[in-house]
Amino acid sequence: MEINALKNADYLDIIFDNRNKSYGGYQLRKSYGQRVGKAVAILYGALAAIILYGLLHKQDVQATTERILDGTILTDVYVAPPPVVVPPPPPPPRAVMPHARPTRLLTDPVVTDEPIPDDRHMAHASDLTHANVGRGNVIGEEGDITPDIRPGGSNTITPPADTRPDKPLTYVEQMPAFSGDLQAYLAAHINYPHAAREFGIGGRVIVSFVVNEDGKITDAHVVRGIGGGCDEEALRVVNSMPPWKPGRQNGRAVKVIFNLPVVFELQ
């Protein structure tokens, strides 16, 4: 490159001196400044367009909002009142409970040989006809017992039926008892049979009988005998005994089966 041309040449001309300047690298470097300028101009133009669009859109929205508000007509809105809840009717008044009704003691069955006081006997069904079940015996006004006031109730209470069995019982709370000394009574009233004495027969005759509610002896029969007329003599003495104290169950006199040994002993 000549000296005059070198003074006016830029660094690209010096680098590409005696080279193929039509090669892409020279052209790219030569036009780099123009391309950067175009890119910067395009960027600023895009930013300016975005800012301008935002300002115009904001004005348009504000104008639209103002038009909507100017044309709005406010009217009264009717709001229905809440539904009225009707409370359910009150329950019917409870029946007036009778006062000072008599009560009968409620006790648990107890098997014992000891006599039970009359005021501790269990109430029977017939005792509850005009009394309520309670924790003690209380004297009150005579009349109907507390009515059944449950919904659908009949307003009356039927006393429980008598559930006492017809057959004699074997074990009860209070067993029957002879009034007095039983062994002394038997010794005083038994006549030793002549045949049994002659043949030396002796021993124990078991007699079974029923003590009724009134204490009288019924249905006596020999369960185990020894013969020689002793069985018949034992039955005679048992059937001729005075009334016993009846057995009791739940405070009521009941029929009870009793087995009595009658001893025949030669002296």
TrEMBL record:
Regions crossing the membrane: 36-56
Sequence ranges assigned to domain TonB C-terminal in this UniProt record: 177-267
Record key words, sorted: Cell inner membrane, Cell membrane, Membrane, Protein transport, Transmembrane, Transmembrane helix, Transport
Broad class of the protein's primary localization: membrane
Transmembrane listed as a keyword: yes
Family indicated by similarity: Belongs to the TonB family.
Protein name: Energy transducer TonB
Organism: Nemorincola caseinilytica
